[in-house]
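From: lab user (bench 3)
To: helpdesk
Subject: output format question, protein + adenosine-5'-diphosphate

Hello, I'm new to running complex predictions and I'm not sure whether the block I got back is the full result or only part of it. Here's what I submitted:
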Amino acid sequence: MANEFMIQFENVSKQYKNSQNPAVKNLSVGILPGEFITILGGSGSGKTTVLKMINRIIEPSGGTIFFKGQDIMTLEPDKLRREIGYVIQQSGLFPHMTVEDNIALLPDCLKQDRKKTRERVRELLRLVRLEPGQYKDRYPRQLSGGQQQRVSIARALVADPDVMLMDEPFGAIDALIRIELQEELKDIHKQFGKTILFVTHDVHEAMRLGTRVMVMKEGVLQQFDTPANVLLNKENQYVADIVGNRGEIQRLLMLNARDLAKPYAPGDQGPQIEIDAEMEQAFDLFMSDKNVDKIILVENAKPVLTLSRDDILIKR
Amino acid sequence: MLEYIGKYYDQIFTMLVDHCKLVFVSILISFVLAFALSIVARRFKAMSGVLLALFIGVYCIPSLALFAFLIPFFGLGQPTAILALVLYNQVLLIRSILAAFKSVPSSVSEAAKGMGIGFLNGLRKVELPLALPAILGGLRVATISTSGIVTVAALINAGGLGVLLFDGIRTNNFDKIWLGVILVCSFTLLLNWGLSVLEKRSLRIARGER
Ligand SMILES: Nc1ncnc2c1ncn2[C@@H]1O[C@H](COP(=O)(O)OP(=O)(O)O)[C@@H](O)[C@H]1O
Ligand SMILES: [Mg+2]
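Helpdesk reply: Thanks, we reran it on our side. This is the complete output you should expect:
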């Protein structure tokens, strides 16, 4: 039963020593392979703790976590960690190693073929849009914050892990570059079907990236649902608060077009946009042409979803 | 003084060699022991307090008294001197090694741990290179202090440049005392310089400025 999940929490709690309240309380969630889970919550709400319990940087004080159906406490920690890429806010790049050596450290420690590893490094650098020839011999201090995070992502991908844990990876990056990195991460997710758990305190980021969003407060899971449901059917006051004093339209605009779309039915007609387009783009189309009733979301030029004007309640 | 050097240069040379030997051997043993204890203390956090308290206690014992305690077991001579120096060095070295590892940014050691390269690889390839400048700084202080204290070891027949000093004091021969002081100081300064070169180089490596 547990086996369909990539990661499953069963009644997991974490009580730190010398701390009054538990950092995580009775968390029970299942995460399916290929999901992009964003974990949203204020500072101190237990987001980082949830993440670090998965790769056993922190041991839970109660409950069980399953990785591909196996209790992680029965697995060898280093073996488990090699199947889980880990990216943190301060990049955690090794300042005394070049970009290439940073990315290659794990395969080098495992004594894998060096030539293959070097080739893999080049491939990964290209994936995160850094020209290998230009960047592989640089040291971290010779990179901008955004470039450091790109390298950090490449490094986490080196062993081709099924799961990526990302703890506010773009938290210290300025807005324009952050959007660029978010787009690239979405592409990587789509291309490789990794299961991603991504911590953020930025509502917009959580909605943009997540296929489902976990909203946390004081160690308690408040809501675990699609961005559309979190934004539009706020289950409790806290979710409403964190989503902010935004009007309906502003909240809508935080979504992706697909979040409110329905499966494409033959016969649906309308202008086409890419499957991962933002709601803003769909909104503009509806607003600029009163006759548009439906928008077709296409993937590789094939219609997949249909977004109706009624779905986003725009009056003519 | 020159006359004295001319006459006894082979004896002085022996004293210098003994001095070097005592310093090198005791620093080497001190460092290996302190490093091993520090690694243990890092894995078992409760150990570090116990170890430091213990060696601070040792450090408080005056050197003559410490020699007196050790002589019944190890006799007069170099082994006792080296043992005493090793004991003295522990608190300086363990403290600085622990502080050096603490100075490695937690994001960096956590990233290494999260990769699954294992404790030893993490230590060798990530934490040690970054902690090295501060470790060498501590080693430098311990070395300077050892080179000074080692002169007292002449009292228990361990030889070294201390012999010159004590002879000079006993016979009221200031040439000997000055010669002893000049040799000890030059030797110590040389070590200090050598280690600070290493320290600076390791700092450049740790910062990625090779
Ligand atoms: N190592 C620790 N020791 C004690 N308390 C901790 C430790 N790490 C985190 N906490 C506490 O646990 C709670 C959750 O922290 P954290 O998971 O880091 O939250 P977030 O990532 O959402 O900011 C906070 O109240 C924090 O103070
Ligand atoms: Mg956090």
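A quick orientation on your result: Chain B has one domain: 2-206. Let us know if anything else is unclear.
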